[in-house]
Amino acid sequence: MARFAALFARAADKAPFDHTAATLATADRQGAPSARIVLVRTADEQGFVFFTNYESRKARQIEENPAAALCFYWPWLDEQVRAEGPLEKVPAPESDQYFATRPRGSQIGAWASAQSEPLANRSDLEAKYFDVERQYEGVVVPRPPHWGGYRLRPDRIEFWKAGQYRLHDRVVYTRTESGWDIQSLYP
User: What is the DSSP code (8-state) at residue 167?
Assistant: First the structure.
């Protein structure tokens, strides 16, 4: 994770895009995959944390099959990181703490959106948003009980750096009982 932290900091420096964006791949009970971009808000020795609606399609897949993969790609560095492992919900206080840092409009949106559910028309969503905005006018918006974080605890992390003639550098870290096994891979 120290190697990731150093690369993550380099990716943040003068990034033309959001360096926290990563593709999250999950699968349902039958193994049917699904991938989408999430914003990874914390990356430390415990793993990678992102936040979402616990009633969304991705959350339903995580409940059915908690194994997942993340892939960061920073084209301005020509580097990527892949992490694989189980997902778990973060403790409520951690979700509360992050929710409090979100822009107020995003907090209200978390209450207003029935994420991943069919939407008849946009005006329904906007009406719900304005209802919630009125409900919490002048007060702190609390975190909805259906919203919070997940942590991917990596069992495997692969670092990839583009090389000339497609002779890329690949190093994989695999968790063992005694720490991490480190191995170079052919490109």
Answer: -
